[in-house]
């Protein structure tokens, strides 16, 4: 049975960028753009009328901000939201996550990263741009741990600790593979194994745990 394409709503006040995203999604098998707008309030209305699976929302739009639009959309149904912005400031990331969005990407994301983000959040996973992760965990976690988390040096091997530290520093999987001289699949295997060992669901939770455990302080 053929799988239905992922239905996407685009909301960004930059018409040129919307056009780029629309062409990317419409020309890629498995995706279809069901609506687009440059206005936050209109995005909320279109989300209710067109029932997209995923909404790509700019943080800053006229009328109703992207964050307020995200809150309204998320309150109204099963639409998952990915925020897109040129601003990589902590408060935007924190507010977006607090609103319940599933993903956060900077507008310099590659086409492959945008497609991967839409697929990932549609599948029910959280996603953050790697370059955002390090700043975010510093915003959410205390500056220095009083007591290192017991997983340090016990539950995880030294190589796993090395991978966790690099995740917490905001490195992508490919950057981790290059730095530790591992294959990309090996890095993915390490991450899957650590998610299970530490009972976390995604790399952001893993990064926060690592920061609270003092791994970043140990690396200085």
From TrEMBL:
Keywords: DNA-binding, Phosphoprotein, Transcription, Transcription regulation. Coiled coil: none annotated. GO terms for biological process: phosphorelay signal transduction system; regulation of DNA-templated transcription. Residues 149-214 form the HTH luxR-type domain. Residues 7-122 form the Response regulatory domain. InterPro entries: CheY-like_superfamily, NreC/VraR/RcsB-like_REC, Sig_transdc_resp-reg_C-effctor, Sig_transdc_resp-reg_receiver, Tscrpt_reg_LuxR_C, WalR-like. The modification 4-aspartylphosphate is found at residue 58. GO terms for molecular function: DNA binding. This is Two component transcriptional regulator, LuxR family. It comes from Xylanimonas cellulosilytica (strain DSM 15894 / JCM 12276 / CECT 5975 / KCTC 9989 / LMG 20990 / NBRC 107835 / XIL07).
């Amino acid at each position: 049975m053929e799988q239905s394409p992922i239905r996407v709503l685009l909301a960004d006040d930059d018409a040129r960028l919307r056009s780029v995203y629309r062409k990317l999604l419409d020309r890629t098998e498995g995706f279809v753009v069901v609506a687009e707008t440059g206005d936050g309030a209109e995005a909320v209305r279109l989300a209710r009328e067109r029932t997209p699976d995923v909404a790509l929302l700019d943080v800053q739009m006229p009328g109703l901000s992207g964050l307020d639009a995200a809150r309204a959309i998320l309150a109204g149904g099963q639409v998952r939201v990915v925020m897109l912005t040129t601003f990589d400031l902590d408060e935007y990331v924190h507010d977006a996550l607090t609103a319940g969005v599933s993903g956060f990407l900077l507008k310099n994301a590659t086409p492959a990263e945008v497609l991967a983000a839409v697929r990932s959040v549609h599948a029910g996973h959280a996603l953050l741009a790697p370059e955002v992760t390090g700043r975010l965990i510093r915003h959410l976690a205390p500056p220095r741990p009083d007591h290192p988390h017991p997983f340090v040096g016990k539950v995880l091997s030294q190589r796993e600790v090395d991978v966790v530290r690099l995740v917490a520093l905001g490195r992508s999987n490919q950057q981790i593979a290059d730095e530790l001289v591992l294959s990309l699949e090996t890095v993915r295997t390490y991450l899957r194994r650590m998610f299970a060992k530490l009972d976390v669901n995604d790399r952001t939770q893993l990064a926060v745990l690592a920061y609270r455990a003092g791994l970043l302080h140990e690396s200085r």
